[in-house]
């Protein structure tokens, strides 16, 4: 494939793992319904999405069957309570009780330490989605402002999340992080947005009656596509490596957001991925020389959350960092293999998106693709 | 032109892999070939280009072929390379058994070399062995023979010793220690080895275990029941030997009576 074809393939793959317009519409309908349900039951709360649905970077989880679930993060921010005069249990317990006693939600809900999950099954081949509800109160009192001046306006979006098994608040700023990323994204998204939305309206006329119905949240800039591809390739890589020390999606999103400052206008998805891969390689070199880098300094792996005083790599070991760099390097090889084509290209596609997605993109594969040798497993051995 | 097994193997390989660059070596034919690995295991496809050097000894298939790389896909510090750079394709007996069943070099290549290259590239990319690797040295040899005989390590060792010493008799108790007559136990497997080229490989593997065990206290003269567990650390000087000995002791203490289930390695 030439580089234009590679870019086209990557974008098509990203679309395959994206939330569909109909599923997105369903999700919006359901979290709005939750807001109304709580309101009718006497609880005032803002029920708003955050996370990858808002940043425009959702990816279907890896799964061998068709019914994999999208996890959609939702904040349930109580506006009838204040952090100073209530406990986490005051915030969360009444909400949980309401769902449990409701005919509509009791069957669909589950509760864990972090959140209340409501599961929706969709008909057809799209699987379904889960709304992960974080019950919280606003926490604009968070005084320890982030260092970057342009991020400080987002600190007022900070929240204190109520968990089940502890009386401590969990401080966080998921909405602020989304706003920060969307601001970074805007320069790279604005110019192509109109035509991309027209295309969406045309191809999904069953969901969108007109161009005005296409939400901005469903638009995907090359930057957003690059994040989706990175997330998917990460999932596939760590599955192959049989490792659960997976770098968090928010870490990848922040890294791309920071890098966006050096991405020229009009850069396509392929080049953005390449910029990310090259940056990772430079970080690895700098870290090896003990020099300050984005991901840490002298062995203390550190990525500052741009909108909240926290190290997003808290708990990262050197082994975690090594694995992260190995993955980025592997993604580089995969992209090279796409351009090489043939069997190499096919293997590269599968390493990025997983076998299932590649099969569904058969239009990109040569008709008479060679089939691989089936390995007879033999264990290597040697004398001492 | 006379056709030795080694020459036939070379011709088969040329037919399977295309024109080869032939180099004459001492007592062996050496081929340099470009080779594209395209293999899949557990749904994961790996494609990688190699330059390979294949040495076919004149004594093939009794003597095993050697394979090494002329490219540098596999770094020299990869665990499963001999110091001369040739691939550790497997335990001698395992390779020998395959060649004695089917002396075709292309079949051997498809089975062992493809599996070896797949494992190596998989390990370099993903940091783990897709279907495991064997311990080095005697421990790995015993792992293979334990799987082959369906026994634990000490039992595999005594069966090998019986083969090497030539004292197997079918009417006597089986060397595995089951208490059953040999002909009703491992007799068929043992005779199959004694009557074939396999005997040579089993003997080589046995000598390898013996050579390794000479450098430390042999477990075969060491009776675990005579000693409490507290004395074990003193005996184990080398970490490699200690893990081998520790395994053997654990397996023999738990299976001092014959056990129908094969010993499982982690
Ligand atoms: Zn026996």
Query: Main beta sheet of chain B, described?
Result: 4 strands, antiparallel
| Domains of chain A (count) | 2
Q: Would you identify the regions of chain A where 5 or more consecutive residues have pLDDT less than 50?
A: none
As a percent range, the share of strand residues of chain B is 5-15%
Ligand inventory: zinc ion
Reported for the largest beta sheet of chain A, the result is: 7 strands, mixed
Number of helices of chain B: 9
Report the sheet-strand fraction of chain A: 5-15%
Distance separating the two termini of chain B:
51 Å
Mean pLDDT across the residues of chain A is 89
> Taking Cα atoms only, what radius of gyration of chain B do you get, to the nearest Å?
21 Å
Instruction: Classify the oligomer.
Output: heterodimer
Shape of chain B: globular
Distance between the termini of chain A: 46 Å
The gist of it:
With 384 residues, chain A is of the alpha+beta class. Chain A has helices at residues 3-16, 21-40, 52-55, 88-100, 174-203, 222-240, 249-259, 269-288, 318-340, 342-353, 355-360, and strands spanning 45-50, 69-78, 109-111, 116-121, 128-138, 159-162, 169-172, 296-297, 300-301, 373-374. In chain A, a hairpin with a 6-residue loop joins β6 and β7 (169-172).
Walk me through this protein's architecture.
The complex is a heterodimer of chains A (384) and B (266). Chain A is an alpha+beta fold and 384 residues long. Helices cover 45% and strands 13% of the residues of chain A. Chain A has helices spanning 3-16, 21-40, 52-55, 88-100, 174-203, 222-240, 249-259, 269-288, 318-340, 342-353, 355-360; strands at 45-50, 69-78, 109-111, 116-121, 128-138, 159-162, 169-172, 296-297, 300-301, 373-374. In chain A, helix 9 (318-340) packs across helix 10. The model of chain A has no long low-confidence stretch (mean pLDDT 89). In chain B, strands 1-2-3-4 form a four-stranded antiparallel beta sheet. Chain B has 266 residues and is of the alpha+beta class. The interface between A and B is large, with 31 and 49 residues. Residues 174, 176, 178, 185-186 of chain B line the site of zinc ion (ZN).
């Amino acid at each position: 494939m030439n580089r234009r074809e590679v870019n086209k393939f990557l974008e098509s793959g990203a679309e395959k793992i994206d939330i569909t317009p109909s599923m997105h519409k369903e999700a919006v309908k359901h979290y709005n319904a939750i807001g109304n349900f709580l309101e009718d039951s006497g609880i005032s709360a803002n029920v708003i999405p955050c996370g990858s649905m808002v940043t425009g970077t959702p990816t279907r989880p890896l799964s061998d069957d068709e019914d994999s679930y999208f996890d959609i993060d939702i904040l349930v921010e109580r506006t009838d309570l204040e952090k100073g005069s209530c406990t986490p249990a005051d915030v969360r317990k009444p909400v949980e009780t309401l769902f449990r006693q409701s005919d509509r939600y009791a069957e669909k809900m589950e509760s864990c330490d972090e959140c209340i999950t409501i599961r929706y099954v969709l008909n057809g081949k799209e699987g379904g989605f889960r709304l992960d509800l974080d019950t919280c109160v606003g926490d604009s009192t968070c005084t320890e402002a982030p260092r970057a001046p342009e991020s400080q306006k987002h600190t007022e979006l900070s929240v204190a999340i109520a968990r089940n098994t502890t009386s401590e608040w969990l401080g966080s700023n998921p909405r602020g992080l989304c706003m920060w990323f969307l601001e970074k994204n805007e320069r790279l998204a604005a110019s192509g947005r109109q035509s991309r939305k027209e295309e969406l309206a045309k191809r999904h006329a069953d969901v969108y009656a007109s161009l005005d119905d296409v939400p901005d949240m469903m638009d995907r800039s090359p930057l957003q596509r690059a994040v989706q591809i990175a997330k998917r390739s990460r999932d596939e890589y760590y599955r192959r490596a049989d490792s659960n020390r997976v770098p968090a999606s928010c870490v990848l999103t922040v890294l791309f957001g920071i890098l966006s400052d050096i991405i020229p206008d009009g850069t396509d998805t392929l080049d953005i991925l390449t910029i990310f891969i090259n940056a990772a390689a430079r970080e690895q070199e700098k870290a090896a020389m003990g020099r300050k880098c984005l991901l840490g300094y002298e062995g203390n792996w550190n990525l500052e959350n741009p909108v909240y005083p926290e190290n997003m790599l808290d708990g990262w070991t050197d082994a975690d960092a090594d694995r992260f760099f190995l993955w980025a390097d592997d993604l580089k090889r995969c992209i090279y293999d796409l351009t090489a084509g043939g069997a190499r290209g096919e293997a590269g596609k599968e390493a990025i998106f997983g076998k299932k997605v590649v099969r569904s993109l058969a239009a990109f594969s040569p008709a008479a693709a060679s089939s691989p040798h089936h390995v007879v497993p033999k264990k290597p051995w040697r004398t001492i | 032109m006379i056709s030795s097994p080694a020459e036939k193997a070379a011709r088969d390989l040329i037919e399977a892999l295309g024109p080869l660059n032939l180099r004459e070596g001492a007592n062996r034919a050496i081929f340099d070939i470009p080779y594209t690995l395209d293999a899949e295991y557990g749904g994961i496809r790996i494609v990688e280009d190699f330059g390979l050097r294949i040495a076919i000894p004149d004594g093939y298939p009794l003597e095993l072929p050697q394979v090494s790389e002329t490219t540098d896909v596999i770094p020299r510090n990869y665990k499963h390379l001999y110091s001369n750079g040739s691939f550790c394709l497997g335990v001698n007996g395992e390779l020998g058994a395959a060649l004695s069943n089917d002396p075709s070099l292309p079949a051997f290549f498809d089975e062992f070399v493809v599996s070896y290259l797949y494992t190596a590239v998989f390990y370099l990319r993903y940091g783990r062995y897709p279907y495991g690797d064997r311990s080095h040295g005697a421990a790995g040899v015993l792992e293979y023979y334990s799987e082959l005989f369906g026994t634990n390590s000490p039992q595999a060792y005594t069966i090998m010793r019986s083969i090497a010493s030539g004292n197997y008799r079918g009417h006597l108790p089986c060397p595995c220690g089951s208490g059953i007559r040999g002909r009703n136990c491992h007799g068929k497997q043992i005779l199959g080895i004694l009557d074939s080229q396999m005997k040579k490989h089993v003997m080589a593997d046995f000598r390898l275990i013996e050579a390794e065990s000479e450098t430390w206290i042999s477990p075969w003269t060491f009776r675990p029941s005579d000693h409490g567990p507290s004395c074990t650390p003193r005996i184990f000087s080398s970490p490699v030997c200690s893990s081998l000995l520790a395994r053997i002791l654990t397996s023999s203490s738990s299976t001092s009576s014959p056990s129908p289930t094969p010993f499982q390695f982690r």
